[in-house]
Amino acid sequence: MTQLPKPEEALIDAVRRAARQEQFLEVVSADEAKRRFGRHLDLSPRGTQSIALSNALGRVLAADVLAPLDVPPFDRSGVDGFALRASDTTGASDATPLRLRLNREVIACGHAPLIEVSPVTATAIATGGVVPRGADAVIMIEHTELLDDSETPSVEIRRSVAPGQFIAYAGSDIARGETLLRKGTLLGSREIGMLAACGIATIDVVRKPKVAVLSTGDELVQPGEDLGPARIYDSNGAIIAAAVTEAGGEPEAYGAFPDDETLLGDAMRKALADADMLILSGGTSKGAGDLSHRIVSTLGQPGILVHGVALKPGKPLCLAVADGKPVVVLPGFPTSAIFTFHAFVAPVIRALAGLPPENPKTLTVRVPTRVPSELGRKEFALVALVEGSDGMIAFPSPKGSGSVTTFSQADGFIEIDALASALDANTTTEVTLIGAAARAPDVVIMGSHDVALDVVVGALAERGFTARTIAVGSLGGAVAAQRGECDIAPVHLVDPQSGAYNTHLVQDGLSLVKGWQRSQGFLYRAGDPRFEGKSADQAIAAALADHYCLMVNRNAGSGTRILIDQKLKGARPPGYANQPKSHNAVAAAIAQARADWGFAIEPVARMYGLSFLPVAPEEYDFLIVDSRKDRPAVRAFLQALQDDKVRQRIRALGMRPAND
Ligand code: AMP
Ligand code: MG
């Protein structure tokens, strides 16, 4: 047998290893994974430290705090007025004022009183002053009249007061010996205020668990550095480090390491020696770069407890304990990584940080669309919440677990049982909220996305309205508007019969508001001799005549695709099956020479430095749900469309606002 050349040998070896790995991956349920991990974990905090109250914000109390004194420490006046005996005021009114002799003392804050209030006398007292011996009430100055004309100064009382009036008794705010704050309390400004009121200057808090965060992958570049070809930015490192902080830990960000066993192994060992916990991301799925778990298995006892969990997103999760320290390898896919972080890792960090478990908040929602699911894996679908006419509606995110934004923009997730192959449309189910409790946006915009739409949404934000935009395509937006699941649906669909834009989508209860025109056209790399100097139709003819010329198409149902098919008149040039879902993807493919031509809108062509041959102006308009027209945010949206500054910004993007 001849020897394979080196690189191919390595490649084939990697593929074999990947195939073998499928077998040793013992996939367990999410509950079983948590049990196994929990059995080997010591979840108690890793010590306490004493810190100054001024540094205590965001820290966790290590022990209960008992109030060392009463607050207020003495009986205190709550108003400016006169301390007196309530029984001396019986019957007093504006018509029948009573006169009390004034003691020769004014009780200011911070000065102990010297004179006892004896019957039929009163002492002037300031808010916060110590109530003197003998007095049992304070009358407000507004209900008195000072009489200092006579030889013995006196005060006229115009109200009768009850005993105890306007006195804050010692310990009425905080009583000495009471449990002021409990262990595990996260210290915010209010708690710090209470501690200060008790005179506490230093406080025992839980030492934050130190969590080392490493990313793995040859493709990773740190934010701020230049992105070379075939590279992506290391987003997991940043989001996980921040999420560690949110969970009460102290992240130690190590950056990204290439898929190199020696380099990565050294980095992991060093990081773990210095930390209470180690979190990696990437290198867990079956692939050539799958090293992390091999290294983890050498870090300490008992080693890997779980490698493979029957859940989606997140199957390739790896959980281990190395000589008492948790070690976790999160999947590389960003949404999988942060989802499994919150499910399996954040609770551990919270416990080590001394924080109580977080009780997830849930909400009953309706899911309007069918959500397909893989049999045998418990599946979590991240959703955006929208207020419908009959309660909350949850829209599953259309982007997959490779997306960075799916998790970041979701309000929560729904669960699909491992034994179900789908969640039927219109199922009522529970959504578990993530992040801050969901606040319904002021306006929901569902339909086709456009760069200039961001300008209008930006104008709304400047006016204090929050908008949620969900990109579901023109047709999806029209359907959502009919069902009343959104307020506004941006659409750009040509009626194949009449050639008119969007008017055929208007139904009872909807009206059409004109947006702007955008120019659709033929995109190619500047200087391509096949297309230079030609019209769009000539360029298409040239493309069709050249067998090596590769196109990039668009997805069925998009307005652009309708235009492409019209122009191709049944031709199927090479690349036709490549059907990405956005203008940007088309432009990126051409700019990176993965394709030679395609159709997109002019501003996107410009953004990617591509040449553009106009084909047709396209009308991008808004379907407005009539019953929601009077909502302030919808009105603000319509006003923004007419706003001169907004229209100027839309023009600057290469669009033509309606009625220009
Ligand atoms: P892996 O688990 O290494 O096979 O990675 C799965 C996918 O996640 C690949 O597309 C990686 O490029 C991507 N990925 C891995 N690590 C990161 C990271 N730190 N930030 C963003 N994407 C990542
Ligand atoms: Mg990788």
TrEMBL record:
It is an enzyme of class 2 (transferase). Its EC number is 2.10.1.1. Its cofactor is Mg(2+). InterPro entries: MoaB/Mog-like_dom_sf (IPR036425), MoaB/Mog_dom (IPR001453), MoCF_biosynth_CS (IPR008284), MoeA-like (IPR038987), MoeA_C_domain_IV (IPR005111), MoeA_C_domain_IV_sf (IPR036688), MoeA_linker/N (IPR005110), MoeA_linker/N_sf (IPR036135). This is Molybdopterin molybdenumtransferase. Keywords: Magnesium, Metal-binding, Molybdenum, Molybdenum cofactor biosynthesis, Transferase. Catalyzes the insertion of molybdate into adenylated molybdopterin with the concomitant release of AMP. It catalyses: adenylyl-molybdopterin + molybdate = Mo-molybdopterin + AMP + H(+). The keyword Transferase applies. One of its GO terms (molecular function) is metal ion binding. GO terms for cellular component: cytoplasm.
